[in-house]
Structure prediction request, 335 residues.
Amino acid sequence: MNSHMSESSEKPVQPEENERQFLHDLATPLTTAFFILDVVLDDLQKESPPHSSCPRLAQAYAAVEKIRILLQNRRKVLIEQGVPSART
Amino acid sequence: MREPKDVVVLIVDDEEALRQAIVFDFQRKGFQVLEAESGNKALEIVKKTKVDVVLTDVRMPDGGGVELLNAVKKLNPQLPIVMFITGFADMTLEDAYDQGADAVFSKPFDRKALLGAVLKAISSDEEKWSARKFERIESDFSIDITCPDLGTSIKGRALNLGRGGMFVKLDKDFPAAGTKIFFQIKLEGGNSNGISGQGLVRWSRIHASQDFPSGCGIEFEFLDDSIRKRLIEIINDLKTHKFIPKN
Prediction:
């Protein structure tokens, strides 16, 4: 059962609306992590020789990149389904 | 091309960690950087200070990015604005470009692409559109159509020009967003040579509505030498704040 209720109508919120909100809320902290990780990895790779943590940080970067692609793919699916606010 | 040290970038985001990371990155690249945690605070800065490009989130307390975009465009229609959207619950690409955004990034975005967008936004139209961006291969998408003269085409919603690209009405074979595209639009009558060059499809609208015909929004990447100067003059004469019009 859906526990989220819209404030104006008290009607249950549609599942796809919940999903959109969840993905929206997920996108910003993921951007922060992705951006900072990229900055740090770039810096450490420029050291001579590259910092010993680079391989592990690169794994973290790849993991976050995978989440980013999953999010993009889900956005595409929502677009194909015609969810209005996901028309990107 | 302007040097980063001569360019003032205003970064607007209520997410402090992200904002500070972007500030740090742009400062390191030599830009002058200002920051704000809301649209209203950013607007105060734009009113009082010389700003060359604005990077802004959409959803923020105390004035969101859409309100900021609209307010800035009233003050200075040419001031480049780069927007961060999630594409899930804030605004669509169509609306962002129509309201005047020069570039739109879906979160999470690529850091180097963001820098590229800022460098492009501060370049002159001649600089932006004078170098071919990609070689054509057979499978590339192309639009080769003939329209009435420009005024009639705009009135009839077959074609429209913005500061950074154009809307083209299509009835079938819609290119996907992100597709590189070659266009050759011949215009009947008048003394125009038409519009030809390369671009990137920023959005496609498959289903027409009463106000918005089906078609796609194309950002210009390159304009052919024979038409570039004249087309830039036409775009400047339009005095539009829209980057890519919705119709």
